[in-house]
Design goal:
The structure is a single chain. By secondary structure, this protein is mainly alpha-helical. It has a single domain, classed as Up-down Bundle (Formate dehydrogenase/DMSO reductase fold), CATH 1.20.1630. It is built from twelve helices and two strands; from the N terminus they run αααααααααααββα. Strands 1-2 form a two-stranded antiparallel ribbon. The longest helix is centred in the N-terminal third of the chain and has 33 residues. The model has no long low-confidence stretch (mean pLDDT 92).
Length: 339
């Protein structure tokens, strides 16, 4: 059976969001944990330097995913960014503040100056980690979209129990993911605090994930046509999350980090596998659903974009892999601290 370009681009966008949540997830988690694992300026600089060389590269995945949606599925892009405008605007503001904070924090020795930018990093990590879960929870649940592909709700439409539960899942899972990353990058007293934080986070994450899966069965149609992709994703996510808890107890943060990473990947597989071939279900009726066909660009546009993606995506992957290899060592109190 042949696979058309619409399906290929749907899968590619799913992969881009997977990469974004995997990489930016621990990035957000480190920022959220900043006040809990670092108690003085030197310790905070160590924590921030663990993600300093990576945070901007991690955000490229989001920009690429957004660009891919715009070019491949313009009607999806228009409905999503107009309907979720305020939520996405808040994410954008948080990310701008966060990026500025990384660059400005070390420009002045004043404790008040640095503390202000530390709060910006915390806020800029917390809000997107929460709102991305709210956004995707609403996408899979369905939002009011009419026959003209127009979102007819408002911000409060998105703040429903299922969407908020999705936000809590991403918030806690990303924070745990960040704790395990810090377990690989820090040592001494910071590492001891990270160990305690990781174990304290694991139990709430498990509870929230179980609640989210159960609520998804009740509130959405994700499981109506349960398929192989969803089965692999759900099984992988559950097994990996349970294994991550065992690895945390054993102090094996590398394997624990892989476990939370697989949990993120499996969750995206569950959600996107249940959506296909839709990109945004309508709560007003299935006839108003946006799909990979009625929301897509022309065949010619998809062909050109496929050629461009085949050239540039491998280059981006190689560059980012290189940066992680170069900055693979642990951050210590004796390290050169830029931030």
């Amino acid at each position: 059976m042949s696979i058309d370009l619409n399906t290929i681009w749907f899968v590619l966008i799913a992969i881009l969001f997977t990469g974004f949540f995997f990489l930016e997830g621990f990035d957000y988690g480190v920022g959220i944990l900043l006040p809990f694992v670092a108690k003085n300026d030197n310790e905070r600089r160590q924590v921030i330097n663990s993600i300093g060389p990576h945070w901007d590269g991690n955000e490229v995945w989001l920009l690429t995913a957004g660009g891919a949606i715009f070019a491949a599925f313009p009607n999806w892009y228009a409905t999503l960014f107009s309907g979720f405008y305020l939520a996405l605007f808040l994410i954008l503001v948080a990310l701008i503040l966060r990026g500025v904070a990384f660059e400005f924090r070390s420009k002045h020795d004043s404790p008040a100056w640095r503390r202000t930018w530390d709060y910006a990093i915390i806020f800029g990590s917390f809000l997107p980690a929460l709102l991305w879960g709210v956004a995707f929870g609403n996408i899979v649940r369905g939002v009011p979209i009419d026959g003209s592909m127009t979102y007819t709700g408002n911000l409060f439409t998105l703040l429903n129990p299922y969407g908020l539960l999705g936000g809590l899942v991403t918030l806690t899972l990303f924070t745990l993911h960040g704790a395990l990353f810090l377990g690989l990058k820090t040592e001494g007293v910071i590492l001891e605090r990270v160990k305690r934080a990781a174990w304290m986070l694991w139990v709430p994450v498990v509870v929230l994930v179980v609640l989210f899966v159960g609520y998804s069965y009740i509130e959405t149609d994700l499981f109506d046509g349960f398929n192989v992709v969803q089965a692999v994703g759900l099984l992988g996510a559950v097994v990996a999350l349970l294994a991550a808890g065992w690895m945390i107890r054993q102090g094996r943060f590398g394997l624990g980090f892989i476990g939370t990473g697989i949990t993120i990947i499996g969750t995206v597989m569950l959600l996107f596998g249940g959506l296909f071939p839709r990109v945004m279900p309508s709560s007003l009726g299935g006839q108003f659903d946006l799909t990979i066909y009625n929301a897509s660009s022309s065949e010619y546009t998809l062909q050109i974009m496929t050629v461009v993606a085949l050239i540039f995506v491998p280059i981006v992957l190689l560059y980012q892999a290189w940066t992680y290899w170069v900055f693979r060592k642990r951050i210590t109190s004796d390290s050169h601290l830029e931030y």
